[in-house]
C-alpha cells in the first residue's frame, strides 16, 4: 500500500456463546438502523509509532498507550512480520472506541480484530485469515485468561461461527435465519470475563453435560436444515446463565417480558451484562427493545439496538492520508 495512504479497519460487536454454545458459538452484529456497533483502528503513515484513542468509551481504557491492547497487537504483529523476513512500515494508529469495556459484546475482540486486520491490509496482507485469527485469539486470551475464539472469529469473519480448533480450521461458518432479529441491550454496568468465569462451578453434572451436547448438536443440525422452530427450542443456556444471571440486575424480569412478547430466545451475550433477544417479527423486536431501554439499562452508558447478523465481519477502507 502506498505510504501516502491511510486505512481504517472496522470490526463489529459480537455475541459470544449465543446461550447454548459456551465458548463454541459466536455471532457478529449489525444494527438495522446503521448505527456503529464496533471499534475502528486507523493506520496512518508516520515516522514513528504512536497510538491515540478517541470515541465514546475512550475514557474507560488505560491512560498510557503502552498499556492499551492495540499497542500490544502492533508489537505482536511486528514480531510476526520479522519472523516472515519482512519489515514493518513506519506508522501510527488511532483507536476509536465505540464499544464499552466489559460489556459482553466482544469489546476487546473488536479492538484486536480491527488492529490486526488494519495492520495486515496495510502491509499487503502477508498473513492468511487463519494465521491472523490465531494471533487474535492469543491476544484475546491474554486478557480473559484463556484462549478462546467465540468473539474474535465472528468479529473477523462475520456471520455465525462454530469454534472448531481442529487441524488448520479455527472456526467454521454456520447457516443463519435471515428473518431473525437480534435485540441487544447493554445495561451500562461492567462485568469482566475473568470474574464471570470465576462464578462458574469447576465441574458440571452428567445431566447438564449431556443436555449441553444435545442442544448444540440439534441446533447446528436445525441450522443446516433451516428448521427455525427446532433451532429456537434449544437456545437455552444450561452452563453459564444459571450462575451469571445473579450478576445482572433485572435479568429474570427482562427475560420473562421478552418471551411474553414473542421472543424465540433470550440470553446473556458473552459474560454479560449485555442481554439479547431473538425474534422473527420486527414489531416484537421494537417492543422488546423499547422495554429494555426503559427497564434494563442502569445508567447513561447503556444502549440497546435491533440487529441482524453481520455477514461482512471486519472491513478495511483506504483513503488518502491528506483527507481526514
From TrEMBL:
Main location (coarse class): cytoplasm
PROSITE patterns: GHMP_KINASES_ATP
Catalytic activity, as annotated: L-homoserine + ATP = O-phospho-L-homoserine + ADP + H(+)
Any Pfam family: GHMP_kinases_C
SUPFAM superfamilies per the UniProt record, alphabetical: GHMP Kinase, C-terminal domain (SSF55060), Ribosomal protein S5 domain 2-like (SSF54211)
Annotated EC: 2.7.1.39
Residue span(s) of domain GHMP kinase C-terminal: 220-296
Record InterPro entries: GHMP_kinase_C_dom, GHMP_kinase_C_sf, GHMP_kinase_N_dom, GHMP_knse_ATP-bd_CS, Homoserine_kinase, Ribosomal_Su5_D2-typ_SF, Ribsml_uS5_D2-typ_fold_subgr
Record function comment: Catalyzes the ATP-dependent phosphorylation of L-homoserine to L-homoserine phosphate.
Entry protein name: Homoserine kinase
Gene: thrB
Amino acid at each position: 500500500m502506498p505510504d501516502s495512504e491511510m486505512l481504517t479497519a472496522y470490526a463489529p460487536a459480537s455475541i459470544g456463546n449465543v446461550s447454548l454454545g459456551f465458548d463454541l458459538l459466536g455471532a457478529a452484529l449489525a444494527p438495522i438502523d446503521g448505527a456503529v456497533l464496533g471499534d475502528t483502528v486507523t493506520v496512518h503513515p508516520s515516522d514513528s509509532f504512536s497510538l491515540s484513542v478517541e470515541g465514546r468509551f475512550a475514557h474507560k481504557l488505560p491512560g498510557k498507550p503502552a498499556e492499551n491492547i492495540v499497542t500490544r497487537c502492533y508489537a505482536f504483529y511486528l514480531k510476526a512480520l520479522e519472523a516472515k523476513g519482512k519489515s514493518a512500515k513506519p506508522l501510527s494508529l488511532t483507536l476509536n472506541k465505540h464499544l464499552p469495556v466489559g460489556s459482553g459484546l466482544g469489546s476487546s475482540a473488536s479492538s484486536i480484530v480491527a488492529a490486526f486486520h488494519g495492520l495486515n491490509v496495510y502491509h499487503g496482507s502477508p498473513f492468511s485469515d487463519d494465521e491472523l485469527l490465531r494471533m487474535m485469539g492469543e491476544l484475546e486470551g491474554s486478557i480473559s485468561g484463556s484462549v478462546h475464539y467465540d468473539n474474535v472469529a465472528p468479529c473477523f469473519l462475520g456471520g455465525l461461527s462454530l469454534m472448531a480448533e481442529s487441524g488448520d480450521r479455527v472456526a467454521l461458518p454456520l447457516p443463519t435465519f435471515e428473518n431473525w432479529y437480534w435485540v441487544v441491550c447493554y445495561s451500562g454496568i461492567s462485568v469482566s470475563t475473568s470474574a464471570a468465569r470465576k462464578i462458574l462451578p469447576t465441574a458440571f453434572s452428567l445431566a447438564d453435560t449431556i443436555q449441553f451436547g444435545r442442544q448444540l448438536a440439534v441446533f447446528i443440525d436445525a441450522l443446516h436444515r433451516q428448521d427455525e422452530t427446532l433451532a429456537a427450542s434449544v437456545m437455552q443456556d444450561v452452563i453459564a446463565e444459571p450462575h451469571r444471571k445473579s450478576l445482572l440486575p433485572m435479568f429474570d424480569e427482562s427475560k420473562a417480558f421478552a418471551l411474553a412478547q414473542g421472543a424465540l430466545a433470550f440470553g446473556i451475550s458473552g459474560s454479560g451484562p449485555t442481554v439479547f433477544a431473538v425474534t422473527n417479527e420486527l414489531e416484537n423486536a421494537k417492543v422488546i427493545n423499547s422495554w429494555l431501554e426503559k427497564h434494563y439499562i442502569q445508567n447513561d452508558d447503556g444502549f440497546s439496538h435491533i440487529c441482524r447478523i453481520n455477514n461482512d465481519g471486519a472491513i478495511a477502507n483506504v483513503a488518502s492520508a491528506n483527507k481526514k
